[in-house]
Design brief:
The complex is a heterodimer of chains A (338) and B (293).
Chain A (H helix, E strand, L loop, with lengths): L1 H29 L5 H6 L5 H11 L5 H13 L13 H36 L4 H15 L2 H15 L24 H8 L2 H38 L2 H8 L4 H38 L5 H10 L3 H29 L7
Helix pairs in contact in A: 1-13, 5-6, 5-9, 5-11, 6-9, 7-9, 7-11, 8-9, 9-11, 10-11, 11-12, 11-13, 12-13
Chain B lengths: L1 H25 L1 H23 L31 H37 L1 H15 L3 H12 L3 H27 L3 H8 L4 H9 L4 H24 L11 H12 L5 H28 L6
Helix pairs in contact in B: 2-3, 2-11, 3-4, 3-6, 3-9, 4-6, 5-6, 6-9, 7-8, 9-10, 9-11, 10-11
Classes of the chains: A mainly alpha (338), B mainly alpha (293).
Chain lengths: 338, 293
Amino acid sequence: MSRTRMILGRVAQALPVVAGVVVISFLLTRALPGDPAAYFAGPAANEASIAQVREALGLDKPLIQQFFIYVGDLITGNLGQAISTGQPVAADLAARLPASLELTLVALVLSCAIAIPLGILAATRPGTWVDHLCRVIVTAGVSMPTFFTGIVLIYVFYYLAGWAPSPLGRLDFIYLAPPHVSGFYLIDAALAGDWFTWIGALKQLILPATTLALFTLAPIARMTRAAMLTALSSDFIRTARAAGLGRGKVLYAYAFRNALLPVVTTLGMVFSFTLGANVLVEKVFAWPGIGSYAVEALVVSDYAAVQGFVLAMALLFVLLNLVIDIAYALIDPRIGVA
Amino acid sequence: MSDTSLAATPRKGDKTLGHIAYVLKGNPVTLLAFGMLAVFLGCALFGPSLVPYDPLATNAPRALEPPSWAHWFGTDQLGRDVFSRVIVATRLDLTISVAAVAISFAFGSVLGSVAGYWGGWIDAVLNRLLDTIMAFPLFVLAMGVVAALGNTVENIIIATAIINIPFYARLVRAEVNIRRYAGFAQAAKLAGNGDLRVLAVHIFPNALPPMMVQVSLNLGWAILNAAGLSFIGLGVRPPTPEWGIMVAEGANYIVSGEWWMALFPGLWLMLAVFTFNLLGDGLRDIVDPRKRT
C-alpha cells in the first residue's frame, strides 16, 4: 500500500520537472535570433506575408498568452511543421524514434553485460591486473569522443577487415525492411520470421551499438566496482562468510543484490549521456534516428524540428528517470515496508 | 602574535608542498598529466608561430598525402598540413572550454553561495531551476541553446557554460550550506563583518579545493562537448582549424582509406580530454585522499 503511495508520490514529483522542461523549451523557441516570423515566412517573404505568419503563429500576442497557446499545442501533440521534410515534427519524430531507441537500448544492454561483470571482477580482486585494466578502461572510456570511436571502428572493421557492412543506416540495400509492428527492426524481423533480415539488421547495429557501449562502459563499471567494494566490506557479508556460506552465494545473493541499487541509479545518468552521444553516433553511422534528424534540421536551420527534438528528448529522459526510480522502489525491499 | 604567524606560515606551506610532493611521488600518472598539460598550454600559446605550414594554406597537388617526413600527419583533401592544423586548433579548443568553464564557475559560485547561505525561497527556486536543466540530456540541451541563440562560437561557449552551471552551483551550495553556522563563520560575523564579507572571504574559500577538482574534470568534458557540437556542424565554421570539424571532414574520407585526416585530430582531442581527466583525478587525490576510487 505505502509502496503504491511512494510510486504515486514519485510521479507527482516529476510533474514540476515536466513543467520546467516545457517552459525552457518554450523560451528556446522564442529566443530565436531576430524575428521568428520573418524566419518562418521564408527568404522570399515580404512585409505582408511576415505579418500573416506572425498572426498565424500567434507571435503578435503577449508572451504569456503565447505560452498557453504553446502548451495547448503540445497537449494536442502539435510541435509545428518541419521545413526540411514538410511533415509535422511530431510525426517525423515518432517515425524515427524506434531507430534511436533500438540503438540506445541494445548499446545499454551490451554495455551492462560487459561493465557489470568487469566491475565485480575488479572489486573482488583489488590491486590485480583486472583491477588495473578496469581503471584504464574507465579513464580511457570517458576521454573518448564517441564520434571518434565510431570512425575508428568503421575504419578497422569496415575498411580494413571488411567484416562490417557499410555504415549507412539500419539495413543494407539488399534487404527489405520488415513489416512495421514496433519499429524495432530486430523485433519486427523476428516476428515476421525473417531471419535473413534479422541478421542483416543486427550486422548494421553492431558497430554503432558498440560505439555507444564503449562510451557508457566507464560510469557503469566504475559504479559497480565502488558499490561492490562497499557491499563486500559491510558487516552482513562478514556474517555471511562467518556462517560458512559459499563464495558464490555471498558474492551474488548478498553483495551483488545490494550493490545493484546504486548501479541502477547510475543508469539514469548514463542514459542522459547516451541520449546526447546518440546524436553523434547517428551522424557517424548515418543512422536514421531522431538524432540525425535533429542534425539535418540544424544544418538547414529548421528550428521547429530542433526544438521538438530537444523537448522530446527531455520528456523521454524524465520518463526514463521515473521508470528507474519506480524500478528502484520495486527492487529495494526496504522501501515501503516501514 | 606576528612572530607565531610568521613562524607558522612557512611550516604550513612546507607541509602542503610536502604533501603534494608525496602524492606526486606515489602517483607518477599525475605528474605525467601535469607534463601533458604543459605541452597543451605550450601549443595553445606558441602553436601558431611554431607550426611548419600555414594551417589555412591549400596546396592542391599535394592533397590527401599519407603521413611523411614533410607532413607528419599527412595532408587533407585541399592539401593543408594536418599537423599544423591540429596544433593551431589547440588554442581555439582550449579557449572555448576554458571560457565556458570560467563562466559556469563564476555563475555557479554566485548562485550556489547565495542559495546555500541564505536558503529559503532563493534556494528552493534555484534547486528547481537546476533540476530542470539537469532534466535535459545535456548535450541535447546545448544543441537546442545553440540553435536558439544562433550558430556562433560565442554561443557554443554560452551553451557549454549553461549545461555546466548546475554542477558548480550544487557543489558550492552544499559546501556553503554546511558551514553557514560553523564556529569560524559565527566568529567572523560577531567581529562585525557583513553577511557578504563573511560569505565571500570566510566561507566561500572552503569550497575552492573541491571546485578545482570539478574544474579539471569539467574542462575535459567541455572540450568533448564543444568538439561534438562542431562535429555536427555547429559553432566553428570550416576553414577554421578545430578538432571536431577536422574529425568530421576526415570522416568522409575514412571509408576510402584516408585514415590520417580523422585519426590525428581525434587522437589529439582524446589526449587533451585524457589529460584533464587524469589531472582531475590527481587533484582529487591531493585535495581529498579519501575519495579515491
